[in-house]
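Section 3.1 - Work completed
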Amino acid sequence: MKKELKFFTAILIFGLIQCAVMPNLKFFGVMPDILLIAVVLGGVYFSWGWSLFFGFSAGFLKDIFGIGGFAANVLIFSLWGYFIPKISRKVSIDDIIALPFFVFIVTFINDIILRFLSLCRGEIISLGIFLKVAVLGSFYNALMLLLVYKLLNYFKCFPRRRS
């Protein structure tokens, strides 16, 4: 329970960092999504129930502090919290080499889902801009994962790997 509380506290801090610091770290107009990174790490290192809770919490924070359709991130992050533990049981993604590739894929799929939802709301986004944001954002998240992983590992927020 101690590790879960530390990780939840980290998600709350990441929510504040996401809205206060990350807009200043934009690279070609794209900023990293450390809440999504936290959801991926929560899904890989915690049990299914905790992962779902972390996904819901991170999505709620992103919807509160962000702009866009309300409850979209709650739904999508909760789904990531549901599916990532199931995927990580089938495929070994808990090492520092495979994890950035997995974060890249999750971020890219997350961007596709969010752009589809914005298209359903009538917001038209050109394909070139979408691809720039999706690919650069996915790379940026994969690189930012290394920093977030080291930070969370330093504060011992991860439990032992579940079987």
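Second construct:
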Amino acid sequence: MRVTLLLCLVLLVPLLMLSFVRADSNGQWTKFSGNPVLGPTPDGWDSDFTTSPVVLFDGAAYRMWYVGGHATGIGIGYANSSDGIMWTKYPQAVLSPGPSGSWDSSRVTVGSVLWSGTLFLMAYRGENATTFTNGAIGVAESKDGISWVKYSGNPVMTPGPADPFLGEPFALRWQITYNMWYAAKSINAPTSPVKIFYATSANGIKWTKWSTPVLSPSSDPNAWDSATVTSPAVVRQDLNFGLWYTGLNQSGTHPQIGYATSTDGVGWSKSTANPILTLGIPGSWDSAGVEQPGVVKGANGYMMYYDGFNATSGARIGLAYAPENFTVPEFELPQVGFLVTVLTCAVACYVHRKR
């Protein structure tokens, strides 16, 4: 009997410790006390708002691309930092809307940026007032992250019957395949929910769309993300994908940020701790909404950049840190493994006593 109980303890303790680590890693992120870290520049091209941060870290420096704007237009800006907190902006937008008549003449917004080993590659959303009023997706490349050349064959993805409205794209290259998660509507109507769709490509130019959404709003009408899931940001760690997204409830106000995991980039499990980044306290700079996450593995762990806003000021960019011991798990299996082990031990003890 003592041997059986000792065996149970040997099996249970490691799993119990693992469950604590996983539970912590799925918890709330901690906002940086000095937020926001990047705001509008008075009298600058981005004097009204700064949103949609996308950040890369090369081991020594951080680079950020973001959406900025003022009364006369919207463009994509750039900033760099040595610590991910203090940022130096490039003085002008680095990607702007195209000339009159082009597919992206009305506005451009950044979706994602990746480093190919020789070039920075950007996936971005554009629209115009005639042919692409519901958005389309284009790509651009740069040697330094500042001077960008748009692909002459843009847009590389356009609306279709299953996704007549296209939102933010996030592209990630894994081995030899480009993967893209993007926001879209299945039905082009004001009340139609925004969902997250998926596509793949061998070259980043010609894309094959997945036929159905891979992440949808909650079916619970009272849930925090029951109306919309949008602005995906994806990280690959080992054999697993982590996806952060913006969710909206039925009121259509006060966005918050959630998290989901997957082993294949298609089947996603939402965290039970969602939303993992919530509104700031009343009166704070992000008390009315937190949205459009960008996640990067920095010098000391995962960091989330996001934009926030309140009732009286335009959006600005803030920073949050991952929980201690954060990883990108496949899904929350420790609890299942823990229960299985408990049952196994119970059966073993019962059989031993019967003997």
